[in-house]
Design goal:
- The structure is a single chain.
- With 141 residues, the protein is mainly α.
- Helix content is 19%, strand content 3%.
- A hairpin with an 8-residue loop joins strand 1 and strand 2.
């Protein structure tokens, strides 16, 4: 259990030290998978740009979300689901994301633009697929 339940809050989770360990390990797993067949896996991509409605975990499991006043979960959106991961969030994609960032539809492509909030220039997924590229410039040893 994470103190303060920061990991279930998308705005607070980057402030939790375990966040960096978790995401660094995911990056390492990604590289391990990619390096098994790098030329092919630098171009393998797909999936939806917007998340699908939460269907329960595991699929078909009838889970009752905690009430919105549960002190162990952040408040939800007023739906009574509380802030449990996957519940209590608006299911409608934000209009800012429905132009699909150069994909031409709801399927992610290598042309998908990664918006960086003016921290740096926006890049495409193709620009960051290779961690050894000049843009990412990372190496696992």
């Amino acid at each position: 259990m994470v103190l303060g339940m920061a990991m279930v809050n998308p705005l607070l989770s980057p402030g939790d030290p375990i966040f960096f360990l978790h995401h660094t390990y995911l990056d390492k797993l990604w590289w391990d998978w990619q390096s098994k067949d790098l030329p092919r896996r630098l171009t393998e991509i797909g999936g939806n740009n917007t998340r699908q409605p939460f269907a329960g975990f595991p699929p078909g499991f009838n889970f009752t979300f905690p009430p919105g006043d549960n002190p162990f979960f952040p408040p939800g959106n007023g739906s009574g689901h509380g802030g449990f991961p996957g519940g209590g969030f608006d299911e409608t994609p934000n209009p800012a994301f429905t132009d699909y960032f150069n994909d031409g539809g709801n399927i992610t492509t290598l042309n998908h633009t990664l918006w960086s909030a003016n921290i740096m220039e926006n890049a495409t997924i193709a620009d960051v697929m290779d961690i050894g590229s000049s843009l990412v410039c990372a190496e696992y040893v």
